[in-house]
Predict the structure.
Amino acid sequence: MNLRRILAACSLLLGFTLGFSQTSAPKNWYNLDPAQDNVPGVSTEKAYQQLLAGKKSKTVIVAVLDSGVDYEHEDLKDVMWVNEDEIPGNGVDDDNNGYIDDIHGWNFLGNKSGENIQYDNLEVTRLYRKYQKMFDGKKPEDLSSKDKELYKKYKEYGKVIEEKRAEVEEEAGTFVAIATAINALSDEIGKEVVTQEDLAQFESDNPLLMYAAQITQTLMDQGQTFEQIRKDINEYAEHLAAEYEYHYNLEFDPRPEVGDDFSDPYDRDYGNNDVRGPDALHGTHVAGIIAAKRDNGLGMNGVADNVRIMSVRTVPDGDERDKDVAAAIIYAVDNGASVINMSFGKGASPRKELVDEAVRYAQSKDVLIIHAAGNENKQINEGNNFPTDKFEKRSGFLGLFGPKYAENWIEVGAINWQNDENLVAYFSNYSPDYVDVFAPGMEIYSTTPFNEYENQQGTSMASPVVAGVAAVIRSYFPDLTAQQVKEVIMQTAVRENKKVKEPGSEVMVPFSQLSVTGGIVNAYEAIQLAAKVKGKKKSKAEGSAGNGNSDSEKKEKKSVAVP
């Protein structure tokens, strides 16, 4: 959804406009090379042509923890993971992994009857509901010191929900009216496909129709088609409706439909094998960036050329639940994933210890996790963006030993395709301590359900670019551990010695201050270094690699060295 274009056009209501590019990115720009193609891509094509041609590779499984993946898509069906130990459709857990007929992955957002969860609350709503049961009717002065802190959060969450519902209700009214008017334009004009010439000649006594025509004309001037404009605005109106009816609705709680014991973190015997789910747009787009079949004459090329996509449905329209995230990570690890992409996040994590345990498990099994930094154009820290690579508690006796941070985790921010002061995507989160690298995340063309393709943007798109690069390295250099692959990617990130706009403002800051590395991921440079690194991966007889017993500190990342 080109949300910024929509908001820019609709901001005419308020008498101002938002600036954005009036040109379009090359469809495959994220795979292109900065020097050869004049866009800050990750040099995938250059790497294949100059470094990997004729080289042998090993098939790598990449788990996509997301909303679901359209496994029948023309550009994905040949790269989907197939559980060969499972007989499709026989209703039997043939491989005894605890999941029946998990052919392409698993869905933790459904029940055993095949019903699926599409919508859920945001975490703030779930927490308010929980605290409401604890504090309703109680006075602050009667509470313990510990409960007073929770009571304070309870009040804060209540205020957020009240304000957001009012804000969404007002905005939804505007956008529903605009969507209705734009839908009516083609009927008024008498043509299904409306052109700029049609709009220039259009006249009506209905001021809303004239306003809709003005918005549409503005967006078409920026290169959008009428069909895309109508689709985007309708989708945004639906998004606002979902926020009001589900995200911030205290009366809505779909979890009982799943049928698990939600209080039991070790109850993972739930879900079903519908890995597409009711809305696979986001996950399908992510999967295509990583692995859409290369050079097949269809759609676009994914980053990685010898991978299989495992779809693990984890993320509803709303905030993911910590228990589901933990279960999904463990499922992916146990079923052979080498890389896990997690293009999701939220502002609170009430059961973070479950996710931490799963991340530690992935680390012990040499699995690399790539995570999107988020789209709130804010500086993130250990307490405002989850999941995170900082463990809530250290492992070992009394939580005194073991690493503070996961050593198998890369946090990814998003860049624009124009290498100027707008290099960092306007929406991207950033941090010199908690965002490791940047990667392409604006106007990313990839697969969408039902054999379609479209541009999407977000750190959700930047993360799979990095996951794809990691998969290429793990495929061509299988002796490297997850930690070594991480360090190769970070050490070879291309540094940009320039000032850029800080996301969400017009303030100019050094690009180097917005992430740990101050760099943009580059497949060509990473593969060159990977070829020189001696792999530390142990054989199965020796045991798993990547346990990471060193006390990895964030500040040490700035001078990472490949062991």
Q: What stands out?
A: The CA atoms of residues 194 and 226 lie 6 Å apart.
